[in-house]
Amino acid sequence: MATTEFAPVLAAAQDGAQWAIAALWRDLHPRLLRFLRGLDPLIAEDVEAETWLVAARDLSMFRGDEQQFRAWMFTIARNRLIDSRRREARRPSVATPPEALHDRPADDDPAVTALDVLSAGAAIALVRDCLPPLQAEVILLRVLGGLDVEEVAAILGKRPGNVRVLQHRGLRRLAKRLSHEAPERPGVTP
Amino acid sequence: MTPPVGTPSGMEPFALDPGTAERLVAGAVDAGDAPPEYRAVARVLHALRSAPDDVDGVEWAGETEAVERIAAVVVRRPARTRRVRRTRRSSSRVARLAAAAAVAAAVCVTGGLASAGSLPEPAQNAASTVLGTVGISVPTGGEEPAGVQEPAITAPVPSPAVTPNSPDAGTSAPTSVAPPAPSSPAAPGNGNGVPAHGTPPSTAKGHGNGHAPNGSPTAGVGNGKSR
Questions:
Q1: Alpha helices in chain A (DSSP H)
Q2: ipTM of the predicted structure?
């Protein structure tokens, strides 16, 4: 969404105009869903739906530009995810349904090998499986949210320096993992 | 790890400077322009921010329902806000009315007591000062209430004919008795029914019934109820 368009769209969405809400949803929904899938694929869709409802409840009070709106949405998504995980932790463990396993990459996941045609889902799975949670969170917020270091630091409650270190380590770890994977498989384009 | 072929010895193979890291996460570097060790990473990051396609068609599932659900919550919000505001406004109006009624009642009671001269002396003085500024005459503390005439009190003259042992004692009035002032709260008298023997009339003050005991030669100065 162009920055110049954002203010009227937000104002209309705050008045409950469906076309404006749909515009915001189309812009942010894939990013939020990918971000949440990168952290917890089993509850990502529920948390994302909850995120929108929380945002809708407080939308009339939001003031800011598009970048701030995006940071606000990702903050809500992250907080809802943390709450959801806490709720899940209090419940007895539930067996993973087989249909949820399609998000888990196998060892010979073609997404890892055929990087040329890597889909978003496979890339999310790669980030989630290769990186420790905090590094994955930093990379996903920066890439999917389009947020700068300071905004990510504010969302995570860390200093910008810590975020830079986490980002650097995450990229290196990813590079090492991919360089390991690539030579072992024929026909890989690194 | 052994450095790949072509990597200068002593150089970390996955070295990454902060500028390149920033460009990678910002999507400002094409995979072909990235450092060789990071080309695969650049492809992964590019795939992350790619537009949803058929493979990820599930990302668009339920758009209509989701938007309607969100819009319902957004629309409901202003109505609730207005109702809360109205409730707050009406409750504050009730509070203001109650406060005004309490102040009016306090003014009436205090004014009535002040005009009757029944307040304690400091309060009476204050009330007199305040009400005097708005043209209402109220007695000060230690002063007779306005509008009540000072009773003409004369010093009792002992009647030689009346003695404590006289058969008329307790039944006859003194020779000079102040006219009764039944409604005067500041009517002289000690209020306990003790006769004001030898007390100058002007200083003999008191409140209450001031019943003089039977057999009092002077019968005191009371409120007219002396028997």
A1: 3-14, 18-39, 44-58, 66-90, 110-113, 120-130, 133-144, 149-156, 160-184
A2: 0.79
